[in-house]
Prior knowledge:
The chain is of the alpha+beta class. The protein has one domain (about 15-85). The protein has two helices and four strands. The strands form two sheets. It has a two-stranded antiparallel sheet with strand order 1-2. It has a two-stranded antiparallel sheet with strand order 3-4. A hairpin with a 2-residue loop joins strand 1 and strand 2. It starts with 6 loop residues before the first strand and ends in a 6-residue tail after the last strand.
Amino acid sequence: MDINRIIIENGVMLDPKIMNDDGVIDLFEHYENLPQDVLDILDETTGDEDYDELYAILDRLKPLGYTFEIGMCGSAYNLRELREDEK
């Protein structure tokens, strides 16, 4: 991948330098690319959620087209848009 190239996805310019090895941007680290309805849900969080609370947040984000992963330590990471095959 040419790291000087800018990718345009859904009208948003994405710098390849902020993508992980799979070409995915963790939107937890780039809030500026999130729609307001997703931001509203995330703004209600404290960062101290347990597994059940994280899954409840995930259930609210999926209908909006977003998902994230939950680590073994109980932390959320890799917030991203759902792929077509996940919808």
